[in-house]
Amino acid sequence: GLTYTIIETDGELFAVCVKAQEGVTLEGTVNIPSTVALGGKTYTVTSVAEGAFAGQEAITEVTIPSSVTEIKGQALAGCSNLTCLKFFGEVAPIVADDVLEGVTGVAIVTSENATGYDTLAETLGATLQVEHVHDMDCYEAVEAGCTTSGNITYYVCNVCKDTFADEFGNVRITIDDIVVNAKGHMWNSDY
Known about the structure:
Elements: E1 2-10, E2 13-20, E3 28-31, E4 35-38, E5 41-48, E6 59-64, E7 70-71, E8 84-87, E9 94-95, E10 107-110, H1 117-124, E11 127-130, E12 136-139, E13 150-151, E14 154-157, E15 163-164, H2 175-178, E16 179-180
Parallel strand pairs: 2-5, 3-6, 5-7, 6-8, 7-9, 8-10, 10-11
Antiparallel strand pairs: 1-2, 4-5, 12-14, 13-16, 14-15
């Protein structure tokens, strides 16, 4: 249900702006990814478009990765059931004053080490909740070889050191879930 617009910021530097697909109703939690693959290239999601989720009344929570540095005007206007904006950035993004136009009772959730969110909450008329928010490092998948093990893509929180299958820390996993066993040798013989 999300669509992305590539924005050239400086020569060959590109950023991506996210919004809901036209005609698609989103509900529950919307997880904005930190990166997106488009046309065989991976881009960083840096902004939430103007009016991105406006009128999406079934959205209850939006998770915003640390890569997002700007949330444009009326991005969440009219999201009447929205109760939580969960931020993963250490520094609050630049946010238009009317992002939550017509929306009340929203909690901004961020980590104890983050800065600028108290001002953000005040500006938006939201409450601030400080709790552990995962600060993830991504470890890309490595294919297993004949004699060497590989691994799936996984994430480790720099704060709590827990390991997860997703960048938002929703699916906790163990080392057994990460490792892909070596394939071994396959000998073909006519004997």
